[in-house]
Each structure stands twice: as C-alpha cells, then as structure tokens.
Amino acid sequence: MSEQVLQPAPALIAPKRVTAVDVCRALRRRFCAPEWALLFEVGDATGARHTRFTDAVAMSLWPSRGLELYGMEIKVSRSDWRSERANPEKAETIAAYCDRWSLVTGPGVVESIDEIPPAWGWILCEGERLTTQKEPARTDAKVCDRRFLAALLRRASTSDGAHYEAEVAARMEANEADFQRRVDRAVEMRLGDRDAALKDIEAFEAAAGIQISEFRGWASSAAETGRAVSAVMKSGVDQTYQGLQHCANTLRESAGRIEEALEALNLPAAPKPTSHKRRRGSR
Q1: What is the pLDDT of residue 280?
Q2: Shortest CA distance to 229 belongs to which of 209, 199, 258?
Q3: In CATH, what number does 20-158 get?
Q4: Virtual torsion, Cα 227, 228, 234, 235, nearest 10 deg
Q5: Measuring CA to CA, which residue among 6, 138, 7 is closest to residue 65?
Q6: Neighbours of 154 (CB within 10 A)
Q7: Phi/psi of residue 258, each to 5°?
Q8: CA neighbor of 24 nearest in space, from 156, 122, 97, 125
Q9: Residue 202: which residues within 8 A CB-CB, separation 6 or more?
Q10: Which of 57, 173, 208, 243 is most buried (most C-beta within 10 Å)?
Q11: CA dihedral of residues 156, 157, 158, 161 (deg, nearest 10)
C-alpha cells in the first residue's frame, strides 16, 4: 500500500476589515431618499449645551411608515463596544428622543446577541451588505425640544463633506486601479506578441541564411526578398518532395508541348542537353 502524501492546507486570506467609512456608506444605501433622511454625528444640542453625540440618526419621511426617528451607534472594534457597554447612559441622552435605537457593527465586534441591551437592535455590516441581527424595540420617545431640533437642523444644513470626499476618493482609487490593470494587461499582451514575432524572425533567419537587420535602410532589398519569398510560397516549391515533383512534371509537360509545336512547324528540334554527370571514379 502506497504511503499517502498529505498536501499542505491552502493559506487562508483574512477578510477585509470593515471600517466606519464602510458602515456609513452601507447606511446611506439603506436609509436613502425619498423614504429616509439620514444625518451623521448628531449632537443633543448646539453650542456649549451639547454633551453627547450619536453616530447616525435616520428620520422616516413616509407617514405610512410611522415617521419614526431611528438612532444608531456605529462600532467597528471590540474594545470600542466594550467601552460603550460599560457606559450605557452615554447613549440615553439622544436615544431618549428616538423611537428606535440600534447598534451597527462590523464582523467580530459582538460575540453574542446577549450583549445587546433589551431595547436595542443590532445591524451587522459585512462589506456592502447590512443584515438585521436583532430588531429594535419601539420606545416612548420624548418630544423633540428646540435644543435637539437645532442640533438636527445644524447637521442637515452642513454637508458631511468628509464622508463624500472619502467616497469620491475610494471610487477614484478603484477606477485608477482598474485602469492600471487594463494597461498592464495590454502591455503584457503586446510584449507577448513581440516575443512571438522575435522567435519567428529568428526561425526565418536561420532557415534563409540571411539577417533581417541587413536590410535596415535598404527598403528595396527588403521588398525584393519579400517578393521572392512570396513567389516561392505561391509556387509550392517549399512543400518538400511533392512541391519539387510537381515542378518537374510541369516542366516535362511544357517541354513535350514545345517539341510537338516544333515538329508541327517543321522546325529543327533543340539539341539534347549535354549531361554533366560525373563519371564514377573520375575527379
């Protein structure tokens, strides 16, 4: 029985780490107009009165959906989430104004659904995909006072330029990478064609006993050689024995017709060619 050879296991590629920018990009796709208005980094007030910020607030704009205010905390690291759990009252300042509250995380941040507070929801972000792991409970939100309204309007009036700039930069980088890949591929194909052409030239020079470089600057010589090669190829002489045999048969048939024509015209036949065969033993 032959000994079984164990093959090494293929190397595992670590998944790309989800960043806060990735989460914000995914939230924009889910909480988008005209159904939602989405704001990032919303405070509980403006000026010196603000004490807390939340990462995102989404307002439902369709009466049929309840016109709910949806608050969200974004966590992309396990340590950040542990700090949040150790200080739960931090979120309550703004969560009190919201009808629902959810935690939005990347993979590996939450180890067990039991870590999520009872009223909170949990949304998992995996690249471009958001999946709801736990639905948030609807709470009795307090009336939105003017301090919180001012914070919402301030955020609505200022474009979150950093996020848009990051989005534009990411797309430009992706486009540049794709363009570079296409350029590299085109160069690779051209180099492959060049190498194949060089091999063909080397084979031609070896068989013909001439160097293509000898014709550089002498266009007529190169053209004449090309025409000669073309004539040989068209004649079929290059087809080894069959090509030569065909030429010999054609010449014999032509000679026979000429002899017949001379005889019909009562013209003397051409003299027989002198044999140039070397006698055996002669020098």
Answers
A1: 47
A2: 209
A3: 3.40.1350
A4: 150
A5: 138
A6: 16
A7: -65, -45
A8: 125
A9: none
A10: 57
A11: 70
What ranges do the domains of the chain cover? 20-158, 159-219, 230-264
Other CB atoms within 10 A of residue 251 CB? 10
The DSSP output letter for 74 is: E
User: Is the predicted pLDDT of residue 283 greater than 50, yes or no?
Assistant: no
Average pLDDT value over all residues in the chain:
82
Give pLDDT, residue 253.
84
Q: Are 108 and 78 in contact (CB under 8 A)?
A: yes
In the chain, alpha helices (H): 20-30, 78-86, 89-95, 146-157, 161-208, 219-235, 240-264
Nearest to 51 by CA among 179, 147, 137: 147
- DSSP at 213: G
Local structure of residue 121 (DSSP, 8 states): E
> Tell me, what's the pLDDT at 111?
95
The answer to whether the beta carbons of residues 163 and 21 sit under 8 Å apart is: yes
What's the Cα-to-Cα distance from 263 to each of 47, 217, 251, 256, 266, rounded to whole Å? 124, 53, 18, 11, 5
Q: Taking CA 146 as the corner, what is the angle to CA 143 and CA 151, rounded to the nearest 5 degrees?
A: 105
Distance CA 148, CA 236 (A): 93
At a CB cut-off of 8 Å and minimum separation 6, what does 110 contact? 81, 103, 116, 122, 124, 133
Q: How far apart are CA 138 and CA 133, in angstroms?
A: 16
Report pLDDT for 38.
94
- Identify which has the larger pLDDT, 114 or 157: 114
